[in-house]
Amino acid sequence: MTQRITSADVIITSPGRNYVTLKIVTSDGVVGWGDATVNGRELAVASYLADHVVPLLIGREADRIEDTWQFLYRSAYWRRGPVTMAAIGAVDLALWDIKGKSLGVPVYQLLGGAVRDRILTYTHTTGRDIAELKESVAEKLEAGFRAIRVQSGVPGLNRVYGVNDRGGAYEPAQRSAVAPEEDWDSDLYLKTAPAMLEEIRAHVGPDIKLLHDVHHRLTPIQAARLGKAIEHVGLFWLEDVTPGENQEILHLVRQHTTVPLAIGEVFNTIWDVKDFILTQSIDFIRTCVMHAGGLSHVRKIFDLGDLYGIQGAPHGPSDVSPITMAASMQLGLAQRNFGIQEYMGYPDLAKDVFTTSYTFADGYFTLGDAPGLGVDFDEEAAKKYPYEAAYLPYARRLDGTVADW
Ligand code: CS2
Ligand code: MG
User: Fold this and answer.
1) Is 77 among the catalytic positions?
2) Which of 174, 215, 287 to mutate to test the pocket of ligand 1 (most atoms within 8 A of CB)?
3) CB 46 within 8 A of CB 36
């Protein structure tokens, strides 16, 4: 029996941080949850969905996931971009959730079944200086993580990406009416980053996987220099070394270093990342399972990567909701060239709204047998946390020029 979409609602809630959630209900009474959170631009996606997509969904066959994806992508005429693709991604996740629940199976079963038993996961560590970073590393190792991203303050700069300038856990967006400002100077960073990574490697020993995110800051030749300088540290990856718009240039970086390169969290379609992949300039493609159009599209990106030994490693900061996280893990179980999942963790209040079925032990996540994506959303609890304006920071160089953040 064909089930049709009878309602679709957009819910904005802020349990510790803002999340945009799409609820789709079918004529069989099945509820599907999608995530549409674009950090710092939440209301734009909420409007795109509520004003332009929801009216198109009512009455459509809920089971036709690929057809709905193609329809939403091609019928808009205006293509790609984070707002459009996150909105399509939210619909896609909700429809996979519905299909799984309707058939009584977790989504990974619909993607071909498990090709692995558990999902290797990395988390974030951070410190204003190396001493503080070591404490953060100890805490995450204690929690069971065996792959960690390390970010530290840069002497001479007050506020930098990945570090809370008041100490403690880091959260990219800050609740405020204006975008907070950070500092940047590539020379100061390059002077200290290699020693920081060396010291952390010495501290954790050879078996812990270490990752580091440059967050689009360097010129190509600076990136090449950094890669060379830290080769002996044995990083699992170096992320976003240059601004991603210039895809050809990573080829240059790669000629100078064997440090594995990861990139892609800011990109939203296969067309935006194909050059990195086809020129074999990277090792890990980091497109987000929601921001890049949902499971239906990210699967295609990862399959393209698989032709060249490039591994999928989806974006998983606190700013994509547990719905996206669960979808990422569903894909992680079924996608052969899935490399690692980012898991930054969530504010405690988020647990009041989202209930997940994935569980963590010894550096890996495991999925249970909950049908669909395996996430529940408590609408009553969500009402307790109204939207609060929040912005991502931006960076200025020491001379006042706006830098890449
Ligand atoms: C990031 C994020 O997780 C990552 O690798 O680069 O921290 C990113 O800065 C945020 O998702 C922005 O919203
Ligand atoms: Mg990143």
Assistant:
1) no
2) 215
3) yes
Domain ranges of the chain: 5-106, 110-369
Average pLDDT over residues 2-14: 97
pLDDT of residue 334 exceeding 80, the answer is yes
Q: Do residues 133 and 164 touch, judged by C-beta distance below 8 A? A: no
Q: How far is the CA of 380 from the centre of ligand 2 (A)?
A: 33
Angle between helices 82-103 and 322-334 (to 10 degrees): 70
- Is 392 close to ligand 1, i.e. is its CB under 6 Å away? yes
Looking at residue 148, its pLDDT comes to: 98
213 lines ligand 1 (CB under 6 A): yes
Lowest-confidence segment of 17-21, 246-250, 274-278, 300-304 by average pLDDT = 246-250
Q: Which of 171, 265, 321 to mutate to test the pocket of ligand 1 (most atoms within 8 A of CB)?
A: 265
Encoded tokens for 159:
């506020």
**Structure tokens given for 276:** 């990195």
Catalytic residue among 73, 161, 189, 385: 161
- Between the alpha carbon of residue 277 and those of residues 82, 260, 280, 299, 311, the distances in Å are 20, 14, 5, 14, 10
Which of the four pLDDT bands, split at 50, 70 and 90, describes residue 176? confident
92-113 pLDDT tens trace: 999 999 999 999 999 999 999 9
Kindly report which listed range (16-25, 81-90, 244-253) carries the lowest average pLDDT score: 244-253
343 labelled catalytic: no
Residue ID of nearest Cα to ligand 1 atom 6: 215
Instruction: Give 222-275 pLDDT, tens digit per residue.
Output: 999 999 999 999 999 999 999 988 888 899 999 999 999 999 999 999 999 999
Of the residues 164, 174, 261, 319, which should be mutated to test ligand 1's pocket, given the most ligand atoms within 8 Å of the CB? Answer: 319
Helix (H, G, I), strand (E, B) or coil at 93: helix
Q: Does domain 110-369 have CATH number 3.40.50.720?
A: no
* Contact between residue 180 and residue 208 where contact means Cβ atoms under 8 Å apart: no
Quick check: CB of 172 below 6 Å from ligand 1? yes
182 close to ligand 1 (CB < 6 Angstrom): no
Is CATH 3.30.390.10 what the domain over 5-106 is classified as, yes or no?
Answer: yes
